[in-house]
Design goal:
Layout: H1 2-27, H2 34-64, H3 68-72, H4 76-108, H5 116-133, H6 135-144
Helix pairs in contact: 1-2, 1-5, 2-4, 4-5, 4-6
Length: about 150
């Protein structure tokens, strides 16, 4: 039962993270208002919280759940999934830093709107995250079917 509960929580967290990424892709656009910047910055905070929770639940699941660490530690797809997750995390740094900078600027300037070139840069990073993020469930699905063991 614990294995099932951990799997459900892990999947819900991953889907929630995907939802936040989709929200950010839609929210970061030309002529963002101060309120939109503040809202998106608040949502981005949850992106980090969920990413941490995914790692915690995922490793508890890998170590203590049905298959155990002996299965995951030698599975190439598990490590590919971890690398993809790390790349997504690294790609998320730029947008998070930009949102923090924009939030601070919007607190001091009532009519603040991010520069167009910054918006384009952040959107490119968000789309890159989405592309790499798509690999994570692909690796997980293959791994669940027994692929990846040497």
């Amino acid at each position: 039962m614990a294995d099932l509960a951990l799997a459900i929580v892990h999947h819900l967290l991953v889907f929630s993270l995907a939802g936040i990424l989709a929200f950010e892709i839609g929210a970061i656009r030309s002529n963002m208002t101060r309120d939109e910047v503040l809202r998106t910055a608040r949502v981005d905070l949850w992106y980090g919280v969920l990413a941490g929770a995914i790692l915690a639940v995922g490793f508890v699941r890998a170590i203590f759940a049905a298959k155990g660490w002996a299965y995951y530690s030698v599975n190439v797809l598990f490590w590919s999934k971890m690398c993809a997750f790390a790349i997504v995390g690294l790609l998320s740094i730029g947008p998070t830093v930009a949102l923090i900078r924009w939030r601070r600027a919007s607190e001091h300037q009532a009519g603040f709107s991010p520069a167009e070139h910054e918006l384009r840069s952040v959107r490119r990073l968000l789309w890159a995250q989405a592309a790499v993020f798509a690999l994570i469930p692909a690796f997980a699905a293959a791994m669940a079917r027994g692929y990846g063991t040497l």
